[in-house]
Amino acid sequence: VPNLQGPRYISPAPNGGFVVSEECGDVKVFTSSRKLLCSLSSKYGHRFGNPAGVCVDVNGSILVADEQRRTVHLFPEHGAPVCLVSAGLRRPNGVACSSFGHLFVADTGENCVKVFKYCMRPP
């Protein structure tokens, strides 16, 4: 996939596509045929500081760690973004989520992994 601005982290998406964070301050979503589906900045009107780790949960929501803003946001397929973590992170980097609603955040500023629980729709 060409024309990315400093690709950093990548995660597969449930639809066969994938999500990529860029150093320039955006997160791009691609289809299974590697076509750009959307930019989260454009779709949601969200301004990232320095997006880092990305993952996609079982509901298809995209979770993004922002190193500069020290937050983790959830971007649902429909609806407005939700800030899941806004305190207690020094330098959130990698993120992963489990099918049980756990959010794992690698905080390189504190040399640890922090685990959070967030609400999910019932299956």
Task: Record keyword descriptors for this entry.
123 residues, four-stranded antiparallel sheet
Radius of gyration: 13 Å
Could you describe the largest sheet, including whether it forms a barrel?
A: 4 strands, antiparallel
SSE pattern, N- to C-terminal: EEEEHEEEEEEE
Q: Helical content, roughly?
A: under 10%
Task: Count every beta strand, where a strand is a DSSP E run of 2 or more residues.
Answer: 11
Distance between the termini: 33 Å
Count of helix runs: 1
How would you state the average pLDDT, rounded?
Answer: 93
Proportion of residues in β-strands: over 45%
Task: Walk me through what this model shows.
- This protein is mainly beta.
- The protein contains 1 helix and 11 strands; from the N terminus they run E-E-E-E-H-E-E-E-E-E-E-E.
- A hairpin with a 5-residue loop joins strand 5 (51-56) and strand 6 (62-66).
- The longest helix is centred in the middle third of the chain and has 5 residues, at 40-44.
